[in-house]
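[step 3/7] inverse_fold.run input=structure_tokens len=78
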């Protein structure tokens, strides 16, 4: 029960953070005009696209490795 409540609370906080507008000025610092999630996403991917892709590849490799470990464990048990 506590885990479910914690998960719902976490998702509510994340949703609120994604939908609220973030302050930004012309030079990229805080304050000034507001912009939303779409502009933030575009700016983020323009700046950090290589990091984003590397993390994606590492996560896929981690899933494949976890599946391989599970398969080896099943073979040993019969």
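[step 3/7] decode complete -> sequence:
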């Amino acid at each position: 029960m506590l885990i479910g409540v914690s998960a719902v609370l976490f998702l509510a906080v994340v949703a609120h953070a994604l939908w609220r507008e973030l302050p930004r000025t012309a030079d990229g610092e805080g304050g000034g005009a507001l912009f939303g999630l779409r502009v933030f996403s575009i700016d983020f991917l323009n700046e950090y696209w290589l990091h984003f892709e590397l993390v994606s590849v590492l996560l896929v490799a981690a899933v494949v490795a976890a599946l391989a470990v599970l398969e080896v464990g099943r073979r040993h048990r019969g």
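[step 4/7] annotate
Residues 1-35 form one domain.
Helices lie at 2-19, 37-77.
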